[in-house]
Amino acid sequence: STEVPRSLIAWRGACLSIPCRYKPCLLFTRSSSKPTIEYLAWYLNPVFDPEKKEFTGTVLYKHNASIDPAFHGRVRFLGDLQRDCSLQVSDLQANETGKYGLRLIVSHPRKKQKIKWLSEISVNVMDSPPAPQIQAPNDFRESIPARVVCLIGYHCPDYPINLTWVGLDHGTPEYATRSADGSGLTNNTLSFTPTWQDHGANLTCQLSTLDGIQHSESTVVLDVKFAPRNVLLNVTPNQTIEEGVRLMLSCMSQDSNPPVSKYQLYKDGQLLQEGQTLEFEAKGDEHTGSYHCEASNEIYTVSSPKLRIDIQYAPKDARVELMTDSQIEEGTTVVLRCSCKAQPSASNYTWYRNRQRVLAQTQEELRFDEIRPDQFGSYYCEPQNSIGESKSPAIMVDIQYGPKDVRLTLENPQRILEGDLVTLNCSVGSSNPPVTKYTWYKDDTQYKETLENILTFPATEEQSGDYSCEAENDLCSFAPFNLGSFYSPDAPKDAHVELVPDSWIEEGTTVVLRCSCRAQPSASSYTWYRNGQRMQAQTQEELRFNEIHPDQSGSYQCEPQNSIGESESPAVMIDVQIILNAPQRILEGDLVMLNCSVGNSNPPVTKYTWYKDDRQYKETRENTLTFPATDEQTGDYSCRAENMVSFRQSLSLSVNVLCKYYRRNHFVLLPQNFYSIGAFQRETKIRFSPIRKMICLS
Ligand SMILES: *[C@@H]1O[C@H](CO)[C@@H](O)[C@H](O)[C@H]1NC(C)=O
Ligand SMILES: *[C@@H]1O[C@H](CO)[C@@H](O)[C@H](O)[C@H]1NC(C)=O
Ligand SMILES: *[C@@H]1O[C@H](CO)[C@@H](O)[C@H](O)[C@H]1NC(C)=O
Ligand SMILES: *[C@@H]1O[C@H](CO)[C@@H](O)[C@H](O)[C@H]1NC(C)=O
Ligand SMILES: *[C@@H]1O[C@H](CO)[C@@H](O)[C@H](O)[C@H]1NC(C)=O
Ligand SMILES: *[C@@H]1O[C@H](CO)[C@@H](O)[C@H](O)[C@H]1NC(C)=O
Ligand SMILES: *[C@@H]1O[C@H](CO)[C@@H](O)[C@H](O)[C@H]1NC(C)=O
Ligand SMILES: *[C@@H]1O[C@H](CO)[C@@H](O)[C@H](O)[C@H]1NC(C)=O
Ligand SMILES: *[C@@H]1O[C@H](CO)[C@@H](O)[C@H](O)[C@H]1NC(C)=O
């Protein structure tokens, strides 16, 4: 019929509040058939009297009736007849412990009999407030929010109590006090997020009255499960040590709940071993690395920070590597690198070439921007770190280059005679790799290829020429051309006299005759001839006249000579004369003969050309020109004599035809009738003497 707590507690002097509500089915039905409460009474320790068929006991409250004097003024019925049937008893006495019963008798319009109930609540009135009850989980986990409830089966608005949590003063616990509703209970729920610090803490719930007096309390010891704390990998004696030292690694955890059940050691992320400690002798390559450990308890696994262990050792396995092309050619860039294992890494490198220190080179790389052949040799390096140093094996640096210093020489020591064996030596100063082929050129065209540097052939005329050779090795490198000449031995040939200056020769100037020829070997002496007569004391290549005189006109020849023989040059004429072969006074009608007289000519003159007033006038085979003197014949005459080799030109001669009628009375100034000069060029006209004008006097 009602909703009431099963039991409540209270204590002396406190009040008792019994929350009570009618169940909906009791009264809250449709109005037409609404039941009515006919009897309502609260008893203390009601006892059923079978005779009276009624309950008896201490009446605490009876509707529309008087109350037991012992409770007078202490009992209040808080309810009504519709919903609420709550009762409050204040200032409780110790003997008021027991069962509190609510007797209800209800009449129902549609039922003949009345319906009766008794609701009972057992109430324990204690001497003092009991300890509140703490509802908490057996254990907590750090960081996982948890709730703890402090609870007591008491609630009375007239005598309020306070449940207070103490013992969790760190962090931000969330207190939430909840008190009475229909349950008749008071509770205080503590929500908090446990930390490892809370483990073992005494968490107390205190019950106090409003006057601040604390009456009772309950305590739980918190069991907070937490992950291993401050997990560290410890290395002794040091995380940086030299090879060979014994190292001990141990994994430590400051605290853990429950205790750490497993340790694991890792190197570079790989499980090394299960267990808390590990001891070993440090080996550089094997043991250098990044270490960490893990500590696990039932709940968590925690990693330590990573720890780098450096096992130091002097450089080892040093070696020199060629970083550039394995075939090293002169002028290329070559880089040698010194590599090694070392801890700490090598900081300093010493380089050696042929066991000599390479000065000022302390880098890992030895660099040649343009390597030279003389830098070849065996190289090694010596890397060094703070622990020590080590030497690498040597490597050979072999520098290849094309043939150098190619020279072509004629090896024959003595005079070569026709038919001798001629030896040409194409010598190569150096070459790496060695020369594989020699190519020979004669007069700039390829002549032969040989594997040897020697070319031999018999001395003949056809072999004469300019020779060069070219040496080649596998680098396809060519030696520069190198000219050498070979001519088969021969007497002088093509001897001829060159005249300098090669123009009009003036009296008193310097004239040089030079004898030139081809000869192998070259001419060693010269013989000169004038007009076919050997000139004494003239054996030089040149014949020199410092101030030539007309008397020195003549035909000159030279004869060069070498060990093989001699040859004679054609004659060179250096004079031509024109002679007027006529009366000294030429009168009209006289026969005039001009005589072009050649001092000497070899071969003989074949043609004479006559010029009058600079115009070609006539050609003759003889050296004379004859004509009758007329006035028109007056003029300047010259002649030119030619042979197969050359020609010479005379100077001009004036012919003046005199007036016939005044023969006896005239006076004539004759031009000088004789000049001698050698000349080459007819364009040039130089007169030696003035022409005097003839005057006819009447
Ligand atoms: C209670 O008393 C009131 C008047 O005081 C009366 O009206 C009512 O009928 C009585 N009820 C019962 C159940 O006696
Ligand atoms: C409780 O004890 C007091 C005296 O101490 C007495 O007067 C009273 O009647 C007792 N009450 C009950 C319900 O026995
Ligand atoms: C409970 O106690 C706290 C601290 O003593 C106080 O602040 C609070 O007002 C009290 N509450 C009640 C309902 O007495
Ligand atoms: C504590 O009190 C509140 C409000 O009265 C209630 O809702 C809650 O169920 C109670 N907790 C316990 C454990 O009794
Ligand atoms: C908790 O209470 C017990 C008993 O009073 C005491 O021995 C212990 O030291 C307390 N613990 C803490 C953390 O205060
Ligand atoms: C470990 O080595 C470092 C560097 O070599 C040194 O500074 C440090 O003192 C050493 N520690 C111990 C414990 O030997
Ligand atoms: C490098 O090594 C050379 C030779 O051992 C030494 O003279 C030089 O001081 C070293 N330099 C450094 C920086 O260690
Ligand atoms: C070629 O010339 C080189 C250098 O002058 C010389 O050493 C070598 O003996 C010569 N060879 C011959 C076959 O003459
Ligand atoms: C031309 O003159 C030369 C030299 O004076 C002379 O020997 C020669 O006989 C002359 N010739 C003639 C045909 O007169």
Ligand kinds: 2-acetamido-2-deoxy-beta-D-glucopyranose
For the record, give the distance between the C-alpha atoms at the N and C termini, rounded to a whole number: 203 Å
- What's the CATH architecture of the largest domain? Sandwich
Stretches where pLDDT is under 50 for at least 5 consecutive residues are: 661-698
Query: Using only CA atoms, what is the Rg?
Result: 75 Å
Subcellular location: Cell membrane
Pfam families: C2-set_2, Ig_2, Ig_3, Ig_CD22
Domain Ig-like: 228-303, 315-397, 403-473, 492-563, 570-652
GO molecular function: carbohydrate binding; CD4 receptor binding; protein phosphatase binding; sialic acid binding
Brief write-up:
Residues 228-303, 315-397, 403-473, 492-563, 570-652 form the Ig-like domain. With 698 residues, the protein is an all-beta fold. 1% of the residues lie in helices and 51% in strands.
Description:
- The protein has 698 residues and is mostly beta strands.
- The protein folds into 8 domains: 125 residues, Sandwich (Immunoglobulin-like); 87 residues, Immunoglobulins (Immunoglobulin-like, Sandwich), CATH 2.60.40; 80 residues, Immunoglobulin-like, CATH 2.60.40; 82 residues, Immunoglobulins (Immunoglobulin-like), CATH 2.60.40.10; 80 residues, Immunoglobulin-like (Sandwich), CATH 2.60.40; 85 residues, Immunoglobulin-like (Sandwich), CATH 2.60.40; 80 residues, Immunoglobulins (Immunoglobulin-like); 35 residues, no CATH class.
- The protein contains 2 helices and 59 strands.
- Strands 21, 24, 25, 27, 28, 29, 31 and 34 form an 8-stranded mixed beta sheet that branches. A 5-stranded mixed beta sheet has the order 2-10-9-5-6, with no helix packed on it. Strands 53, 54, 56, 57 and 58 form a 5-stranded antiparallel beta sheet that branches.
- It is rod-shaped, with a radius of gyration of 75 Å.
- The termini are far apart.
- The C terminus is likely disordered.
- One 2-acetamido-2-deoxy-beta-D-glucopyranose binds next to strand 14.
